[in-house]
Design brief:
single chain; mainly alpha; Tetracycline Repressor, domain 2; about 65% helix; elongated; transcription cis-regulatory region binding
């Protein structure tokens, strides 16, 4: 008889990954502390050791996870901004289940630090009024991804637990959505540079 493997220790990272899986596969409405505990094979109360504010802290952590992106400075502020926008788009598209949180939660922790870093990089790259530019770029990316998710058919599951629900497949965007995103980004960057 094989030896029983010891349980994987509970960590904030494991909790967030399990929560992302539930939100992306079943929808944000179905993400409960009890369901999360079941997925992690722990009592729901054990989660509070890592997230003392419970579900509020979990929602903040999920929003932070998909909005705290990093990009290395490029040769120009335009290329730096382009790298940030592409990385942000990809992070949000990877986890459509928490897009609503990214749209509504105030940036905190690593997400707020990422925004400060982006602002500093664009200012150091020579862009005047970098804070306004960052706000415009973030609004563009969030709006563009929201439209992509809407067009993909991804939506919250129905309220009836008996009704089957399947999220659409995720992954790379279509050529048309990529082209639309780049066209809009180019126009925005051109406008910010004037």
């Amino acid at each position: 008889m094989p030896a029983k493997r010891p349980p994987i220790p509970l960590s904030r990272e494991r909790i967030i990954e399990a929560a992302l899986h539930i939100a992306d596969s079943q929808g944000l409405r179905r993400l409960t502390m009890r369901r999360l505990g079941d997925a992690l094979q722990v009592e729901a109360m054990a989660i509070y050791h890592h997230l003392p504010r419970g579900k509020d802290a979990l929602m903040d952590a999920l929003a932070e996870h998909v909005t705290a992106v990093h990009a290395e400075p490029a040769d120009s502020w335009q290329e730096t901004a382009r790298a940030w926008c592409r990385a942000s788009r990809e992070a949000l598209r990877e986890h459509p289940g928490v897009l609503a949180l990214a749209l509504t939660k105030q940036p905190k922790g690593r997400a707020a630090m990422a925004i400060r870093e982006q602002t500093e990089q664009l200012a150091e790259g020579g862009l005047e009024n970098a804070p306004e530019a960052v706000r415009a770029l973030r609004a563009y990316v969030l709006g563009a991804v929201a439209v992509e998710v809407q067009q993909s058919g991804w939506a919250e599951p129905p309220g009836d637990d008996d009704e089957p629900w399947r999220p659409p497949s995720r992954g790379g965007g279509s050529t048309a959505s990529d082209a639309d995103f780049e066209r809009g980004l180019n126009a925005l960057l051109a406008g910010l540079g004037t």
